[in-house]
Here is the input.
Amino acid sequence: MRTIGQHRDEVAALLAPVLAPRAPEVLTLDALADGAGAGRGYRTLARAVTAPVPLPVFDNSQMDGFAVRSTEAGQVVRVVDPIPAGAVPAPLAPGTAAPIMTGARIPDGADAVVPVEASPPGAFPAALGLDVLTVPDGTTAGTFVRRVGSDVALGAELAPVGAPVTPALLGALASAGVGAVSVLRPVRVLVVSTGSELADGGQQDDDGSDAAGAVIRDANGVALRAALAEVGAVVRRVQLSDAAEAFLPGLESAAGDWADLVLTTGGISAGAYEVVRQVLEPRGLAVTPVAMQPGGPQALGLVELAGRRVPVVAFPGNPVSALVSFEVFLRPVLAAAVGAPDRPTAELPAAESATSPVGKHQVRRGRVADGRVHFVGGPSSHLLAHLAAATHLVHVPLGTDSVEPGDPLTVWSLR
Here is the structure.
């Protein structure tokens, strides 16, 4: 039985060949800001971007105040016409000061800004009525001036290949006048929910009841689609029955030449209707149990589908098992590929006692209050509402059979 770390490494190795060579596409900044087909806007640069202009593009004022000559510190100077942002100012004559707004261009001849708070009125617009200003002693060249190129020099690298296109980078690109960039296309994932008992999770009868007493709503498809979108993947969903003769044609049709990765849920345990295991093991899927609860049954491999070998990662079908498996095994790999942040991690004391199977790494649902970890619900893999109520995943390590109040536990923040 594998450890969590060993299986995560296997998932990373399986996906490495399909994550690296994704084709580039050129997108506008507006398209990237809107997500451009990838959840949360996580796209990565396919080419480095250099600055076509320096940032800032001209010396400008860091403060609302007065543009002055530092050589006139201690002198009384005449106040001239104000300089709003966006205006090209006239040169500043000796013996004068110009009211200037934040971000406005520093006029030729000026080399410092006196904050408006240092004037007798202390604020605009009252300070616009001044006829003269005493330039404070100690005013030096560069005071409250943003120098041209102080953020990025002309021709300098704004962002390297592989950089995530974050909101801050989009802002820097826009400031530099870059209208479009080359980015890697998103990872394309086919999410397959298996089970003849499944109905679409978004459908119900008018009275809210199930059409048949044995129907199970597909929680995994919609939940994993949302989870994958958080790390920039594009997702298609399909539900396939347990009928072995129909499973492979349905899977190959859905995957086609589109999917970079197939992610299945269900059908890999030791039951009588384990269609994923039954159909895909002969084609390259390896079932590899992991010492984890929930989510012990796991499988992965390069599987022959429609004439090509496609990475397949297979999770258990219980909804908590599927989502915990995603967080532990798949999310870290996909997040690293697109520059998405890791889950914030901390080590905190337990607020209460709990038990854990000594031979497994248990992942519990929890919340943090007053600096301590409180368990939310039990460890069972069907308690999805408890996972929805939790704010953290709580890790009880392999070899631990009990947790007592005060024992340190690693937690991952989910929100």
About this structure: The two ends are 31 Å apart (CA to CA).
